[in-house]
Write a structure and sequence with these properties.
Oligomer: single chain
Largest sheet: 8 strands, mixed
Helix content: 25-40%
Strand content: 15-25%
Distance between the termini: 132 Å
Number of strands: 18
Shape: globular
Length: about 375
């Protein structure tokens, strides 16, 4: 890969990249100096290269993978994924203008200055990965403000030195933040995976009244307001789920609820029960959707969260058999057998309790019954009176 750059404020500013892959990873150090910014139009096909690269320096990396292939400018529709170094602090205006195939962007919380119009034309962008190295503030709010489409954001936090273990946090029980007993992942670092839904408005004509009014679609606009001073408020984010249930589609709600349950960063017990409640209430539709998506992992999450019902698991089994998904069918059949065994065990326990309660009531009744005194006939009493 070849990078054109110039020195700026004691660091390096990226001007243009040339390579053979659609994935671009910018190094942290070039010519012994930190990469701190990317210039306006750096990844846009609308840059005037003759003017901007006139006095630029060149850095080259020999990777060996592109032997025999000619390098081309990595801009516009040629770019699908960009990884910025943790040292990057600023991106210029219209840097991604016209990058219609850009799908993923990775950076750190050092990137705070976002140039205007940076994401103009980036309609395919749907994933942001943010390395939270310095705290809880980032430039994500400014980025989301320029995009109307759904964006999935992964916040990767650094473990705190005095971080307690999960069991210690659960035992204290005073924070109100829920920590999971079972998670299907091995990562120990704190992480949050959030969905910011799409949002758009349209003008609708009321012909009889001869007026236009605006209809709003999607809850994304509200979710983008959960940042305060560049820091995301997770409690405010979770409170909006009730609105999302009304305004957004099933697949969005599934990703929201499962994302928060699997990666419960600053998730309160109340919010956890709301997400679990949504899954339980709509288990039939959700289970069928997951089978169609061949998402075995989230079917396992339902098992870990103990949310299966016979109705939900039977619907999933029917869908799996129709799609001839043998692996999923085998998993669901095992889960169904376990569920039936537990149900029968609970029913037997309930029967035993009822029988024990009945025996207890009978013994209590027998103790309470006192022998009634035998009343003598009236004739006998009269005779004794006469005597």
């Amino acid at each position: 890969m070849k990078i054109y750059y110039r020195e700026k404020s004691g660091g390096i500013e990226i001007l243009r990249c040339f390579g053979i892959e659609s994935r671009v990873e910018i190094p942290e150090i070039i010519d012994g100096k930190m990469v701190i910014s990317a210039a306006p139009y750096a990844f846009s096909s609308h840059m005037d290269e003759d003017e901007e690269l006139k006095n630029a320096s060149v850095w080259e990396m020999e990777d060996g993978f592109g032997f025999g292939r000619e390098e081309h400018v990595l801009a516009g529709n040629e770019v699908e994924e960009i990884v910025f170094p943790d040292s990057l602090r600023e991106i210029g205006r219209y840097i991604f203008y016209g990058c219609g195939n850009l799908k993923k962007l990775e950076f750190s919380d050092s990137l705070m200055q976002i140039g205007c119009g940076a994401f103009t034309g980036c309609h395919a962008l749907d994933k942001l990965t943010v390395h939270m190295k310095q705290g809880k503030k980032s430039g994500v709010k400014e980025m989301l403000g320029e995009m109307w489409q759904r964006i999935d954001v992964a916040f990767l936090y650094e473990p705190e030195k005095d971080q307690q273990t999960e069991s210690e946090q659960r035992s204290e029980g005073g924070t109100g933040i829920w920590m999971p007993d079972v998670l299907h992942r091995k990562e120990s670092r704190p992480e949050a995976r959030l969905v910011f839904p799409e949002h758009y408005d349209e003008a609708v004509e009321n012909t009889p009244a001869r007026i236009l009014y605006t209809e709003y679609h999607g809850s994304g606009s509200n979710y983008r307001q959960c940042f305060y001073n560049k820091e995301l408020n997770y409690q405010e984010y979770d409170k909006l789920f009730e609105m999302a249930v009304v305004m957004d589609k099933l697949e969005v709600l599934v990703d929201m609820s499962f994302g928060r349950l699997e990666f419960p960063y600053e998730l309160t017990e109340k919010a956890r029960e709301e997400y679990r409640g949504y899954i339980g209430k709509n288990l039939r539709e959700i289970a069928v959707y997951l089978v169609k998506q061949e998402d075995v992992h989230r079917l396992e999450v339902i098992s870990a969260q103990k949310l299966w019902t016979l109705e939900g698991i039977d619907a999933a089994l029917d869908c799996a058999s129709q799609k001839k998904e043998t692996e999923i069918s085998a998993f669901l059949m095992n889960e169904r057998a376990d569920l039936v065994d537990k149900s029968e065990g609970n029913e037997q326990v309930n029967v035993d309790k009822i029988e024990n309660n009945q025996e207890t009531d009978m013994s209590v009744q027998e103790k309470d019954v006192q022998p009634c005194p035998v009343k003598k006939p009236l004739s006998m009493r009269k005779k004794r009176f006469e005597l």
